[in-house]
DNA sequence: CTATGTATACTGACTAGTGAGTATACATTA
DNA sequence: TAATGTATACTCACTAGTCAGTATACATAG
């Protein structure tokens, strides 16, 4: 039904913006409802709890985030090492935006570290695992080995860059991470250049 | 005076435990005071605000954390690459403990991402920068170049391992990060082995 | 050696406001 | 009329921070 879909989408949209901007613990359900232009009761009609809303927020970002990464990868010129580095370079650009506040998945996981069974934590883990799997496939297809280990190490550099760039408010960490990723690829498979 | 020091230390000790275990946003000042066995008013006698208490919590962890890292580095057998890898291996052990919940500095920075000027965020940035500087020196002394870039990339792997291990509740990410660090060192300076 | 003054370290009760979540009722649409 | 969606108006626990006052120690003045 249209009204439902529309209202639900507006709530989710407001939640995404506020949760990412302020952090899930610093945003009240009232604030989300107000930003969406609905009453709190309406929000609770569409989502049974704040925890569910938080999980839905991350779920909604899962595919778009992945799609953006793969788009950068596909669009980049050169071989796979260059394409991997392109992801870091693009993220460095994004991180320059004043509204950038790190990775929403990582930050939510950090906030909910005391609640490992929280639905949002599971969504976050699934998102990160999905990207690692996708990357391993790309490396494997390109003949870069060991694809799985390499993918994991690149993910580590990526998550580290999210954290360090946020800590120091300096996108240069993404550049250094991208260089490290390229170095690792080249080091394991020097022939591929 | 002894009583003051003692009380202040008890409050700080309670804050460290609770803030790390639950996250700064999920722990009330009342809870810290209760855990320390003092009234809230007494807590506010020693700390002017919760924000100051949070900053003091990280400040108190700065030196001990650094000391633990350097101790692992010093105690490890072999050359600098092996010593670097030892830090990751030791962290993997620590991460197996059920009470382990990632890096307190990173988690606090993530929670306070909306407040870049927060005193605790500054303490976190200083802590991470301090470790990066220390590591660069160790690499430089050992003749491993480029020491600064290498140190930064190893820090990125470290922060990534904190994040990914927390996300997946799997210390294996520390092992993979340690291998990546060793690979990078070997790759830049293959002669050093 | 007493009396008064003052700084330190602390307490219980409180305020003003916010938190998540809900009982009930009114509207729209199928 | 029955289901769906939205609103007003609440509950009650909890939040950071404060008020006004107290016990103790240690000064210095008489």
From TrEMBL, chains A, B:
Q: Which InterPro entries match?
A: DNA-bd_HTH_TetR-type_CS, Homeodomain-like_sf, HTH-type_TetR-like_transc_reg, HTH_TetR, Tet_transcr_reg_TetR-rel_C_sf
Q: Which UniProt keywords apply?
A: DNA-binding, Transcription, Transcription regulation
One Pfam family, please name it.
TetR_N
Question: Which stretches hold the DNA-binding feature?
Answer: 28-47
Entry-linked Gene3D superfamilies: Tetracycline Repressor, domain 2 (1.10.357.10)
Determine the domain of life of the protein's source: Bacteria
UniProt entry tagged with the keyword ATP-binding: no
Report the GO molecular function annotations: DNA-binding transcription factor activity; transcription cis-regulatory region binding
**HTH tetR-type domain: which residues?**
5-65
Name this polypeptide is given: TetR/AcrR family transcriptional regulator
Taxonomic source organism: Fuscibacter oryzae
